[in-house]
Specification:
7-stranded mixed sheet; mainly beta; 11 strands; 126 residues
């Protein structure tokens, strides 16, 4: 079992940067594939980015490629999402997720994740 807590959300102007963090506790995070998802009210939760256990493999939604970077520091039990060139359509609650696995692959489907944080609000103004 692992507990996840997101932080770093807030209000930012379009074009600006924002960095989200996901702090994990309870288990060794190197045993977990992790990812970021986002959701606005009335919309389905959508995949944003994913990273393998070691951090050696990443994947991104097409809408954020070239703008967002997912990373992790397993020694600090923390995952990050660096968001640059933000757009109003990036506005959402952002969630981090984790899945315990022995396979060093990314996980991009939300129902394949076992643990979720409470979310952090990101609002991008124009």
């Amino acid at each position: 079992q692992v507990q996840l807590v997101e932080s770093g959300g807030g209000l930012v102007q379009a074009g600006g940067p924002l960095r989200l963090s996901c702090a994990a506790s309870g288990r060794t995070v190197s045993d977990y594939a992790m990812g970021w998802f986002r959701q606005d009210p009335g919309k389905e939760r959508e995949f944003v980015a994913a990273i393998s256990k070691s951090g050696g493999t990443t994947d991104y939604a097409e809408s954020v490629k070239g703008r967002f970077t997912i990373s992790r520091d397993n020694a600090k039990n923390t995952m990050y999402l660096q968001m640059n060139s933000l757009k109003p359509e990036d506005t959402a609650v952002y969630y981090c997720a984790a899945r315990r696995t022995t396979i060093g692959r990314v996980v991009i489907t939300d129902n394949n994740y076992d643990y979720w944080g409470q979310g952090t609000q990101v609002t991008v103004s124009s």
